[in-house]
TrEMBL record:
It comes from the Bacteria. This is SnoaL-like domain-containing protein.
Length: 130
């Protein structure tokens, strides 16, 4: 089971909670219903761009399992939101992550674009011995 640690400031609004849920799903934790993605959604990430709801879901299904996730910050405003923190996967070590999520409207019902970054982190406060 994945250990998830959240900053107490993250889920302080329904839209922030939605951004966090999507970010966790992009890390392989939780569900991302097809209806949450517009048909033409695009996911820009290391290795290239993935276009379309079906391709994004297929990519999510192949993600390596996470051991620990620490969500440090979730922010939403208008048609966009970001979630960032630290993720640990077996064999990959500790990495910083950031997901920038752009919705089709300010209601945040469907994702139009995701831009994801990961970077090998320095001191992160997550143990590697689990």
């Amino acid at each position: 089971m994945v250990q998830i640690t959240r900053s107490p400031d993250c889920a302080n609004s329904p839209k922030n909670q939605r951004v966090e849920d999507i970010a966790l799903a992009l890390l392989g934790v939780g569900d991302l219903p097809d209806t949450a993605l517009s048909e033409g959604a695009v996911w820009d990430r290391a290795g290239g761009s993935i276009s379309g709801r079906t391709a994004i879901q297929a990519t999510r299904a192949t993600l390596p399992a996470c051991q620990d996730i620490r969500v440090d910050q979730v922010v939403s405003h208008g048609k966009a939101g970001t979630a960032s923190g630290v993720v640990v996967r077996a064999g990959e070590g500790t990495r910083l992550f950031c997901h920038i999520i752009r919705f089709t409207s300010a209601t945040a019902q469907q994702v139009a674009q995701i831009v994801s970054f990961e970077h090998a982190g320095g001191k992160t406060g997550i143990r590697h011995d689990r």
